[in-house]
UniProtKB/TrEMBL annotation:
<dbReference type="Pfam" id="PF02348">
    <property type="entry name" value="CTP_transf_3"/>
</dbReference>
<keyword id="KW-0808">Transferase</keyword>
<dbReference type="InterPro" id="IPR003329">
    <property type="entry name" value="Cytidylyl_trans"/>
</dbReference>
<dbReference type="GO" id="GO:0016779">
    <property type="term" value="F:nucleotidyltransferase activity"/>
</dbReference>
<keyword id="KW-0548">Nucleotidyltransferase</keyword>
<dbReference type="InterPro" id="IPR029044">
    <property type="entry name" value="Nucleotide-diphossugar_trans"/>
</dbReference>
<protein>
    <submittedName>
        <fullName>Acylneuraminate cytidylyltransferase</fullName>
    </submittedName>
</protein>
Length: 246
């Protein structure tokens, strides 16, 4: 039976906002929000955190141990290798689906994770399926591909960029079938819900405070409508320029 294995990359060594994945939001580490939101996905069979084997990332290991969260420690710089071996750690078979997330997305959507998995299963398992950032904010990023595709990338990617950015090799191949999930609305992509800078953390913190107890189950549509209703919140990080794709 084909499994859906979700792997979240997480590290402490961000140059712009060091330690961001464990930054406190309402007295809880940001990664805790991420895990709880992913945990609402109905189609994910396993969720594992992929961090590095360096001293700086030990707090992430300790967080995972404390919260009984499965994790894997691998190469700090060869993130593709880390990701591939995290999947092997979970005994991923070639036909299994791999879902790539990043730990700096505290409001990641279980709804969109399930949508991306469903869209992938409706097509060819060799395709690259992703949440379209033309229709959704960054911070809802979800990428889906097979373990066979991940293995191909691991064995063939050679450039520094391809080793650092897990899916770059996959979606840059001329024969790759790229399938976007475009169920959002044009204009939602002007919002920014990932955390790279202090302003991002301020926005997400403000939003989570406003959502109060609804933060766990609030939908992407509701979040975007809330930002439309409160442009002063959206403006908090409106000037941040995304340097590189996740």
């Amino acid at each position: 039976m084909q499994r859906a294995i979700c792997i979240t990359q997480a590290r402490m060594g961000s140059s712009r906002l060091p330690g961001k994945v464990l930054a406190a939001i309402q007295d809880k580490p940001m990664l805790e929000y991420h895990l709880a939101r992913v945990g609402q996905a109905k189609l994910v069979d396993k969720h594992i955190i992929a961090t590095s084997n360096t001293e700086i990332d030990k707090p992430i290991v300790e967080f995972c141990q404390l919260n009984k969260q499965p994790f894997f420690c691998g190469s700090e710089l060869d993130v593709l290798s880390r990701f591939y071996h995290a999947a092997l750690h979970e005994n991923a078979a070639p036909e299994d689906i791999i879902i790539r997330l990043t730990g700096d997305c505290p409001l990641i959507s279980a709804i969109l994770i399930d949508e991306a998995i469903t869209k992938h299963r409706q097509g060819d398992n060799s395709q690259y399926t992703h949440i379209s950032l033309s229709y959704f904010p960054r911070g809802f990023d979800v990428e889906v591909f097979s373990m066979a595709s991940l293995t191909k990338a691991y064995e063939n990617a050679t450039t520094v960029a391809e080793r650092e950015h897990v899916t770059l090799y996959l979606y840059s191949q001329p024969d790759t079938i790229i399938v976007p999930v475009e169920t959002g609305e044009l204009g939602w992509n002007k919002f920014r819900l990932c955390v790279d800078e202090n302003e991002d953390l301020q926005l997400v913190t403000t939003l989570i405070k406003l959502l109060d107890k609804n933060w766990l189950n609030v939908s992407p549509k509701e979040i975007c409508q809330l930002l439309q209703l409160h442009p002063e919140i959206a403006r908090i990080n409106a000037n941040i320029i995304q340097r590189i794709a996740h």
